[in-house]
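Minimal example, chain plus phosphoenolpyruvate.
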Amino acid sequence: MLVVMRDHASQDEIQHVVDLLQEAGAQAHLSGGEIKTIIGVIGDREIVYSLELQGLPGVEEVIRVLKPYKLVSRDFKAEDTVVRIGPHAVVGAGDIAVIAGPCSVESEEQMAKTAAAVKAAGATMLRGGAYKPRTSPYAFQGLGLEGLKMLRAAADEHDLPVVTEVLDVRDAQTVAEWADVLQVGARNMQNFMMLDELGKMGKPVLMKRGLSATIEEVLSAAEYILKGGNRDLILCERGIRTFETYTRNTLDLSGVAALRQLTHLPVLVDPSHATGRRELVGVMCRAGLVAGADGVMVEVHPDPEHAKCDGPQSLTPDGFSELMESLRPLIELQGLRLGWT
Ligand code: PEP
Ligand code: MN
């Protein structure tokens, strides 16, 4: 960490900062010019960062040199993390995940049709929300436990693992009983209590990027889960808020490429929530794979016009099948494979 003192900061002000650092067990290295003094700090990161130096007299700026995350970083672990889900599905290090299914679980029939269609087309996991994070409290909130059971039954029929969201930390154990992958939604990415809890559970987690989260915030949130002992974490870029309104969000492809460099964790793209438009989902899935994504999450509904949630961005079963046919040669061209063993 660097503490940049204001121009002509007094000796007393500089000494006060140095004293505080030394009391905290850190070393302070002064580099003094005629006008400016910069203090280089070496010491325990947590302790040094917890000192509130920014507001002290004479302090202009505190610059954190160290990253606020460690376990998720490529510096800590160079090889790609591989996450296995159930006996067959795998993601990371060249294995591409394709997670498909409706925004929300609506009925047994809807789930049966969707599971059959996505399995036939080559999906490696089935998704569906039983607990839905809706902007309006009057919108469909999901079927809860009943929905989890429908999702599980449809997935088992076709030997697919289940990915579903844990909306509230109080439901984590229940969701874990029925699901193979616990999804942290974009709105919960900085729900630190939830991240702590999922870090202690022995289930793979899929964490979506927050609507306005920076890459550093994504990685810091991911650190909570690994710090708890859970190493099976998959990240997902699902579009961020920008000034653009034509698309629902903006799929941050350079963010995907950056994450692949900064972390060993698998990174997926979710072009359904990113674009909000069915006709853009396919091309952005392909763009995501070219940018280095380890897979895609796509919303599929047997009757999108009557979907309770996110119909305009949902592919029909035929649309999903076409998407898969376009992804197969791209996956092969990139020397990758569909994550199913
Ligand atoms: C979802 O995947 O069902 C969902 C609600 O997505 P997000 O959290 O990215 O909005
Ligand atoms: Mn949705």
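The pocket of manganese (II) ion (ligand 2) is lined by residues 103, 273, 299, 309-310 (CB under 6 Å). The mean pLDDT is 96.
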